[in-house]
Amino acid sequence: MSHFDPAEFSRMLARLTPQELRQVEGIVAEARKRAEAVLEIDARAEAGGPASSCPRCGGDERIRWGRTRTGAQRWNCSGCGATWSGRSDTPLARVHRPDLVVALARDMIEAPQPMSCRRGAEVLDTSRHSIWRWRMTIIGALAPEPDGTLAGIVEADEAHQRESRKASREWVRHRRDPATTPPGGWRVWEKKLLAATDHGGHRVFEAITDAGQRAISGALLPVMARDAVLCTDGLATYARIARDERIPHFALNAGRR
Ligand SMILES: [Zn+2]
């Protein structure tokens, strides 16, 4: 770890022009995204984390073994000699920019309206195909364990997933001539998802055909524990499902939609 002297750093910043300072802000923001991704990767391999024991022999005896190219802690098994990091055996293992994928996953989970693939490609400065591929990987990684049900307070909301690869030609045509829409309209390739999460960190994405009561309850009820409480943005459909199924229901931001 290099030595960091805040006083020296601030003296250096004091000599910069406003334009140079803006450049520094961009560099710092980028570095911070990377550092946060590395922290999340390292947390997986900390004692008690899902990647804390040897992926080959399951042993717990290990020593620190340098860092990966992205800066994450690497471990070496004292039993069998295997090396691994918190990123091993995860969908992130083959991704060269885990920081971007973490940013994308945050957007999918936390943003009120997740970015389109095109916007994601612009924001994260990568190809739309990469965004689409990462999204599918993230959705796969977020799928529940076979016996996992959502318990306690369960939050549910619909999300849209634009399948950009299938529609990339339509996109190009639409970009050239905004009056052009694909046959059948955009809905043809806009996949609707029901996103549900509980406070234990379990998340479920279920494909739904529409936002009707039948589709939503068909996706939601099988993944909810019997004694769970439903928390939504107050869409009337959820209120009806909760009433019909006798689930306690809390509506946040009621009336905003
Ligand atoms: Zn081992």
UniProtKB/TrEMBL annotation:
Name of the protein described by the UniProt record: Transposase
Region annotated Disordered, chain positions: 161-184
The organism of origin for this protein: Jannaschia seosinensis
Biased composition (Basic and acidic residues): 161-171
